[in-house]
């Protein structure tokens, strides 16, 4: 089955605005030689300034890209230009058999993706004694850091919250730096986030007190880790700063990994910056399982983020979920068939009240959840005053849209003021839309 991508979806793949603009400029057949397409692939040779044209090819089943140009951006402007031509008018590109250089690339890709984890070449196992020693050293560092942070929290509470707005930057930076030294980067991030609360909202004392309570609960959870369930232990360790390895998850042969096969609707993505690192969340909803899944991606600021699936698409895939009391984070284990477009809203809560009930159930199981995905199939954008927009359902219930969300007018134009299906990240106070389906068109946050 051939899937026709929209130009908006293709532009959303660009690593930055400059690449998107350059891609648009190259989306013209006069720049290309040997354009062609099949059900799976798209290819062409771009006439650049060198002696040999750049060979550009796209695997439409994911999508994936390859170009012989020297660009370090991914996808490069040539791949974007070729993909945009296809998205604008696929029939203008002749069908044909892929040339050898395209077929060889596709064959190599099939060989890589078809190789099961159990048969992959394994690296030499590290010295178990050395591994155990490093693990014990880190555990000791983390425990020391937690004891130090608990004392800081107790002193902070005893002195009262009134002075939080006048504290110098060092008040927050010093304990955060100590957590980095203790190899507890998750705690360092949470301390740095505390610093911004006294200046963020009018009701900052309540917000700050709540976050301090959550942080203290996390520290106590780590101190009593052995008393927790294995899934909650995984949550606590991850929040403190222990890394979760996708490679280890995929290669786990214990038979305990939570794997779900489904048709997954890709409802949108969001990107934030943390410590000069881009963090990308891609949200998927299972059509049969009704489960949420989050694909997490990272890249240094200025570099391209991974593109595993396009917002607005559907993929038939096995997802492996990381251990958690509320399993959300996942990684793609196996993909099947061609990518399709979202044609309907996956089953799930149909009202705001039902969606919030799902969130509350998740919070009861994992009290440190900062974000939770909501999918509202019958939503409408309304405004109560000059500055605040809301999402409203058929019953009249409303959720505030996050202040500063820049695309409200774009969504209004897309929906024509009518109902739309909206997916967003809910913080417990406001929702930030990441994807919308309206009048048969999909919109994804950029």
Automatic annotation (TrEMBL):
GO molecular function, one term: zinc ion binding
Entry keyword set: Metal-binding, Zinc, Zinc-finger
PROSITE patterns: ZF_SWIM
Keyword Metal-binding: yes
Domain of life: Bacteria
Domain SWIM-type residue range list: 54-87
Name of the protein in question: SWIM-type domain-containing protein
Organism whose genome encodes this protein: Rubidibacter lacunae KORDI 51-2
């Amino acid at each position: 089955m051939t899937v026709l991508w929209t130009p908006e979806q293709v532009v959303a793949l660009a690593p930055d605005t400059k690449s998107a603009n350059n891609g648009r400029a190259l989306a013209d057949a006069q720049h290309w030689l040997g354009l062609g397409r099949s059900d799976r692939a798209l290819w062409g040779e771009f006439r650049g300034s060198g002696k040999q044209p750049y060979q550009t090819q796209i695997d439409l089943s994911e999508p994936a890209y390859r170009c012989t140009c020297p660009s370090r951006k991914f996808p490069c402007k040539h791949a974007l230009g070729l993909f945009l031509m296809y998205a604008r008018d696929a029939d203008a590109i002749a069908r044909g058999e892929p040339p050898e250089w395209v077929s060889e690339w596709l064959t190599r890709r099939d060989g890589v993706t078809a190789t099961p984890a159990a048969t992959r070449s394994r690296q030499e196992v590290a010295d178990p004694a050395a591994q155990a020693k490093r693990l014990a050293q880190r555990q000791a560092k983390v425990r020391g850091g937690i004891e130090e942070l608990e004392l800081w929290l107790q002193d902070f509470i005893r002195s009262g919250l009134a002075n939080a707005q006048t504290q110098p930057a060092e008040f927050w930076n010093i304990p955060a730096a100590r957590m980095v030294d203790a190899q507890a980067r998750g705690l360092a991030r949470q301390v740095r986030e505390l610093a911004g609360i006294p200046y963020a909202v009018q009701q900052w004392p309540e917000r700050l007190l709540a976050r301090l309570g959550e942080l203290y609960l996390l520290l106590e959870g780590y101190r009593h880790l052995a008393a927790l369930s294995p899934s909650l232990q995984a949550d606590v360790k991850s929040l403190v700063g222990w890394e979760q390895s996708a490679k280890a998850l995929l290669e786990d042969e214990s038979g305990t990994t939570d794997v779900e096969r489904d048709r997954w609707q890709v409802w949108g993505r969001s990107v934030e910056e943390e410590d000069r690192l881009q963090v990308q969340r891609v949200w998927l909803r299972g059509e049969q399982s009704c489960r949420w899944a989050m694909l997490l991606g990272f890249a240094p600021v200025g570099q391209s983020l991974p593109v595993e699936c396009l917002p607005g698409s559907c993929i038939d895939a096995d997802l492996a979920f990381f251990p958690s009391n509320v399993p959300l984070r996942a990684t793609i284990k196996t993909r099947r068939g061609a990518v399709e477009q979202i044609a309907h809203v996956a089953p799930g809560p149909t009202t705001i009240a039902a969606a919030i009930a799902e969130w509350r159930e998740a919070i009861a199981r994992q009290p440190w959840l900062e974000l939770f995905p909501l999918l509202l199939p019958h939503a409408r954008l309304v405004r109560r005053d000059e500055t605040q927009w809301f999402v409203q359902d058929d019953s009249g219930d409303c959720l505030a849209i996050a202040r500063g969300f820049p695309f409200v007018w774009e969504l209004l134009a897309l929906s024509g003021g009518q109902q739309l299906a909206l997916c967003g990240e809910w913080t417990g106070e406001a929702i930030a839309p990441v994807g919308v389906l309206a009048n048969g068109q999909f919109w994804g946050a950029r």
